[in-house]
Amino acid sequence: MFAWFIATAQVSSDTIQAKGVTSVDTIPAKGLEVLSDTVKAKELGELEVSAVRRNVKPTTRGIKISMADNPLSEIGSAVDAIKQIPLINAESGSITVVGKGTPVIYINGRLMRDESELALLTSKDLESVEIITNPSSKYGPEVSSVLLIKTKKRNEGMYANVGGTLAAADVMSESAKGGIGYQMENGLNFFGDFSFDDSRFKQKREYREAISMDCAPMSILEESNSVLEKTNSVLEGSEPMLGRAMSMFGEPKGIKGKSFTNADAFNHTVQLMASGGLNYDFGKHSMGIKYTFTRTPSMRFKDKLLTQTNLNLSGESNLSSESQGNPSPVEEISTKSTIFSQSTRHYLNYYAYFVLPKSVNLRLDFDYMKNKSNSENNADEEQTEVKVKNINYTVADLYAGKIEVEKSWDRLSISGGGEYT
After folding, report:
1. Cα dist. 278→116, 183, 187, 288, 335 in Å?
2. Strands 146-151 and 157-168, sheet pairing
């Protein structure tokens, strides 16, 4: 909880007494000349100033954090500021509510569809953040927490922001984002945002396993045989698995051996986003429309696995004395896999909020989304010369509408509505 206060001051002709929370300090009156050049009088009347500001306030459905005169407003990005407020857990790098999982986020009453919408805001843009830990059914039956973010009204004129990151590990990754807009005096606001992300990931992994099980194969077969015996109605007349296995291989003596796997993986993803729209605030009412274009022109993933093993069912290990404990491979398995995908999404949203007479609020939301994606997966096992290719192509359209009416009294509010998808 963040709070600040102004101490109560009593001023007399000889001394100034400043009363804080736990102590009382006496300051000589002649020290006024140092504190302020404007104070010249030798006698002042009594003055009392007191104020308390609570940045965090409990609500009937959670807590609400005011960002006015809040130290968090100086952090920089809105995401970093939200990660520091109570009930937020950011250990995984993403925003989650303690005990409630990932929240649904609304920005100025509009559902956030893409994380870039929040990433484009700075901490100084925030007016308040409300965390709802017991959301009503209007947010959806599967929603366990909600973040309501309200931004400050901008002054008239043009505004813009731009930023970027550059990361270097085994490979380079870079990203950029920005926004521009114009606020008019009559409440009309035009805006546009963009983001670009070019991320790469490279990893080299090694796995070493040593296995020595004298009884596991027998117990596994016995368990499988038990399952078969219990399902005779389905497998009527079938020979028990244990009997078939022993007749083919003899009584198993166990598994002994070692395996070594070398894996190399590489991923390269390019993503683009552009959006634009307008908002109109008039009196207590507001409405707006926004179009967002998202494109993933390329996502490429490559993975290569090479496994060497001397595992066998004979109970004897094929370790050579000169190998010093490393396996003398009796089998080598090499697998290559690749994934390539592309996607394009168009999203259009219209919303309106009206304050009607007798404390009645009306809210409208309409969405349209069109998505296209294609992917190709390839797997190649060199030893068996087996090649598998899987191609997917998807086209999806979404239409959705929602209407909500809320009636409020002093300590009670009732809301109802409906939605269509």
Report:
1. 17, 10, 10, 6, 52
2. unpaired
The 3-state DSSP class for residue 241 equals helix
Neighbours of 209 (CB within 10 A): 13
**All domains of the chain in start order, with CATH:** 3-53 (no CATH), 56-152 (2.170.130.10), 202-214+253-420 (no CATH)
User: For 98, phi and psi rounded to 5 degrees?
Assistant: -55, 120
What pLDDT was estimated at residue 40? 46
Radius of gyration of the chain (CA): 33
Q: How many helices (H) and strands (E) does the chain have?
A: 5, 22
pLDDT of residue 373: 96
Contacts for 241 with CB less than 8 Å, ≥ 6 apart:
221, 224, 225, 228
Residue 216 token pair: 């596991």
Q: Are 367 and 383 in contact (CB under 8 A)?
A: no
In 10 A of CB 30, how many CB atoms? Answer: 10
- Identify which has the larger pLDDT, 273 or 224: 273
Over residues 41-57, the mean pLDDT reads 58
d(CA 229, CA 239): 9
* Of 396, 394, 416, 299, nearest in space to 346 by CA: 396
Alpha-carbon distance of 399 to 396, in angstroms, equals 10
**175 touches 197 (CB < 8 A):** yes
Closest Cα partner for 126 from 64, 62, 39?
A: 64
Residue 415 — pLDDT band, cuts 50, 70, 90? confident
Average pLDDT over the chain reads 76
How is 88-112 classified by DSSP, letter by letter? EE-TTSS-EETTTBSPEEEETTEE-
Question: Phi-psi bin for 230: left (phi > 0), alpha (psi -120 to 50), beta?
Answer: alpha
Angle at 87 between CA 81 and CA 89, to 5 degrees: 70
**Cα separations (Å) of 42 from 24, 353, 385?**
22, 57, 100
Band of residue 312 on the pLDDT scale cut at 50, 70, 90: low
For 127-186, what is each residue's pLDDT tens digit? 999 999 988 877 878 889 999 998 888 778 898 888 888 888 788 999 998 889 898 988
